[in-house]
């Protein structure tokens, strides 16, 4: 079963590295007043770079069954998605996509703690699909912050 997962992981690496890019990440630690101000492009780049770092760590840890590393990085991804800089598009559709991502990250961490290789692998595939859907949505909608709370005219792609 593990041998059949390796091609999926290889494709996942290609997708994640092609979807996300940026500069070095920093760890802001617990939420502060800084997290309550509107995000800037620099903070968004930091968030996406941190997402990439944790995603790469997952792609290294999953094939070798390093469940502790998987759980740690999945937890970090869920926490990242709760930071205010993550909310780059204040729409119901975007928030739904973010909630989906956060739920998948939490499920992956849970499956890693249960030492469930197939559950972790399935959550990883779901996470990649979730990231791809969100990035497609943002490219289609544009990264505007001018209409807080508006409901998008487009539904997230399933």
Report on the structure:
The chain is mainly α and 158 residues long. The protein has a domain at 42-140: Four Helix Bundle (Hemerythrin (Met), subunit A). The protein is built from five helices and no strands. The chain is elongated, with a radius of gyration of 16 Å.
Q: Give me the CATH fold name of the domain at 42-140.
A: Four Helix Bundle (Hemerythrin (Met), subunit A)
Q: What is the class of the domain at 42-140 in the CATH system?
A: Mainly Alpha
Oligomer: single chain
Q: Return Rg in Å.
A: 16 Å
Largest sheet: none
pLDDT averaged over residues: 75
Number of helices: 5
In short:
By secondary structure, the protein is mostly helical. It is built from five helices and no strands.
List keywords for this structure.
158 residues; 5 helices; 0% strand; single chain; mainly alpha
């Amino acid at each position: 079963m593990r041998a059949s997962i390796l091609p999926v992981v290889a494709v996942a690496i290609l997708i994640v590295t092609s979807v996300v890019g940026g500069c070095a990440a920093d760890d802001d630690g617990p939420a502060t007043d800084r997290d309550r101000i509107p995000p800037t492009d620099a903070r968004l780049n930091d968030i996406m770079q941190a997402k990439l770092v944790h995603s790469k760590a997952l792609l290294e840890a999953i094939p070798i069954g390093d469940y502790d590393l998987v759980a740690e990085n999945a937890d970090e991804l869920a926490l990242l998605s709760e930071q205010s800089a993550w909310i780059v598009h204040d729409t119901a559709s975007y928030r739904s996509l973010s909630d989906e991502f956060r739920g998948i990250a939490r499920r992956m961490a849970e499956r890693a703690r249960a030492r469930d290789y197939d559950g972790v692998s399935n959550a990883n595939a779901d996470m990649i699909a979730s990231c791809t859907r969100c990035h497609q949505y943002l490219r289609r909608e544009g990264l505007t912050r001018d209409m807080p709370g508006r409901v998008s005219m487009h539904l997230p792609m399933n």
